[in-house]
Amino acid sequence: MSADRPHSVSVAGVIVDDQDRALLIKRRDNGHWEPPGGILEREETIPEALQREVLEETGIKIALPATLTGIYKNMTGLIVSMVFRCEAADGTPTTGDETRALRWATREEVTELADEAYAIRVLDALDATSPPAIRAHDGVKLV
């Protein structure tokens, strides 16, 4: 990848249930466990993209506004991701075109299932500290 290529911007939503578990998806394209999310489309606002991506990947409509819990830069893939703690407003977790499986995960399960670069996003959202976390990673490990 060229260093002069522009960055992509993505959003991810960490839906938290009343037992303080986070909803993770197992992606169809790479088999990794991650919070639902994806790249913003040109005409979308950040909240619109967040709501669309979470709905597409989980079948759940989230309540807005959501709480920004972290900003993460993939130093290798040149993607800046904003992660939000979300509350489910409607729907039932469902797999789809992009999602092979879903599961509610405790903090411990998140660290076992997800690569460090994605687990930290979920853990930061579960903690929901202020100000939001700002971190960098190489796509797998924090740097």
Please describe what this structure looks like.
This protein is α+β, with helices and mostly antiparallel strands and about 140 residues long. The protein has one domain (about 10-135): Alpha-Beta Complex (Nucleoside Triphosphate Pyrophosphohydrolase). It contains 3 helices and 10 strands; from the N terminus they run ββββαβββββααβ. A 5-stranded mixed sheet has the order 4-1-7-6-10, sandwiched between helices. The chain has a 3-stranded antiparallel sheet with strand order 3-2-9. A hairpin with a 5-residue loop joins strand 2 and strand 3. The longest helix has 13 residues, at about 45-60. The mean pLDDT is about 95.
Task: Describe the structure in brief.
With 143 residues, this protein is α+β, with helices and mostly antiparallel strands. The chain is built from three helices and ten strands; from the N terminus they run E-E-E-E-H-E-E-E-E-E-H-H-E.
Discrete helix count: 3
User: What proportion of the residues form beta strands (DSSP E)?
Assistant: 35-45%
CATH superfamily caption? Nucleoside Triphosphate Pyrophosphohydrolase
Strand order of the largest sheet: 4-1-7-6-10
Order of helices and strands: EEEEHEEEEEHHE
- So what's the overall shape? globular
Please outline the major beta sheet: 5 strands, mixed
Which stretches are low in confidence, meaning pLDDT under 50 for 5 or more residues running? none
Would you tell me the overall average pLDDT? 95
For the record, give the distance between the C-alpha atoms at the N and C termini, rounded to a whole number.
19 Å
Structural class: alpha+beta
The CATH topology corresponds to Nucleoside Triphosphate Pyrophosphohydrolase
Helix proportion range: 10-25%
Under the CATH scheme, which class? Alpha Beta
Q: What's the count of strands? A: 10
**What is the annotated CATH architecture?**
Alpha-Beta Complex
* Quaternary structure classification: single chain
